[in-house]
Amino acid sequence: MKVVLATKNRGKLKEFQEKLKEFEIEVIPIDQISNLEPPEEKGITFCENAYEKAKYYSERIDLPVIAEDSGLEVEALNGRPGIFSARFAGEGATDEENNKRLILELKKLGLENSPARYVSFIFLYIPEGMGLWSSGEVKGKVITEPRGEGGFGYDPLFIPEGYTKTMAELPMEEKNKISHRGKAIEKLVNLIKEVKKW
Ligand SMILES: O=c1nc[nH]c2c1ncn2[C@H]1C[C@H](O)[C@@H](COP(=O)(O)OP(=O)(O)OP(=O)(O)O)O1
Ligand SMILES: [Mg+2]
């Protein structure tokens, strides 16, 4: 089975490819199929953004499309950056700029860490069919001293519960076992299997 993934994020793409390989699903990146500009993420929830991204591409290329919207919710920041994680330091911000902003916001509050969680919502949009969605989360804490070279985004600042290493210090295989995205992907695969039984 092959499925198109609508993302411009290389880190996400690699994690989807690696995880879905376990289930013999091949992931084709959207930019191999179309050079459409990504839609604006205007939703107020992860779920809405994932749905809108998947629908946007699926309707235009007439194939089933998976999209994901994810982010980091930090307790000390009342759940921010949340759906704004990718643009925390402004539109088009790099991971490094977003990480700096997070460190600054925590330091402004006099904190060196805070409980936090990563959230992932995935939507599989099927033209003229039913859609499927799943979600996952991983709890942990964020710190103000980045560590590690792996992963992407806020991973150098995120320590999963029960670990001493940051997400960026874990091999991708291990991150995929415990991460918000890994869990959401597993749930989606189970839903696909259910539908295929009909
Ligand atoms: O496992 C993760 N490890 C580190 N950081 C993460 C992770 N998962 C989400 N994040 C952060 C990165 C980005 O700042 C935002 C996602 O934003 P989100 O809009 O879903 O993705 P994106 O704009 O990078 O790519 P796209 O929309 O094309 O899929 O949350
Ligand atoms: Mg995005």
Give a structural overview.
With 198 residues, the chain is an alpha/beta fold. The protein has one domain: Maf protein. It has five helices and six strands; from the N terminus they run E-H-E-H-E-H-E-E-E-H-H. A six-stranded mixed sheet has the order 2-1-3-4-5-6. Strand 4 and strand 5 form a beta hairpin. Helix 1 crosses helix 5 and helix 4 crosses helix 5. It starts with a strand and ends with a helix. The mean pLDDT is 96. The structure holds 2'-deoxyinosine 5'-triphosphate and magnesium ion. It comes from Balnearium lithotrophicum. It catalyses: dITP + H2O = dIMP + diphosphate + H(+); ITP + H2O = IMP + diphosphate + H(+); XTP + H2O = XMP + diphosphate + H(+). One of its GO terms (molecular function) is dITP diphosphatase activity. Its cofactor is Mg(2+).
Furnish the topology, listing elements before pairings.
Blueprint: E1 2-5, H1 10-21, E2 26-29, H2 46-61, E3 65-74, H3 95-108, E4 113-125, E5 132-143, E6 158-160, H4 172-178, H5 180-197
The chain binds 2'-deoxyinosine 5'-triphosphate (Y43) and magnesium ion.
Residues 7-9, 12, 38, 41, 68-72, 85-86, 98, 118, 151-155, 167, 179, 181 line the site of 2'-deoxyinosine 5'-triphosphate (Y43).
Active site: 69 (proton acceptor)
Binding site for substrate: 7-12, 70, 152-155, 175, 180-181
EC number: 3.6.1.66
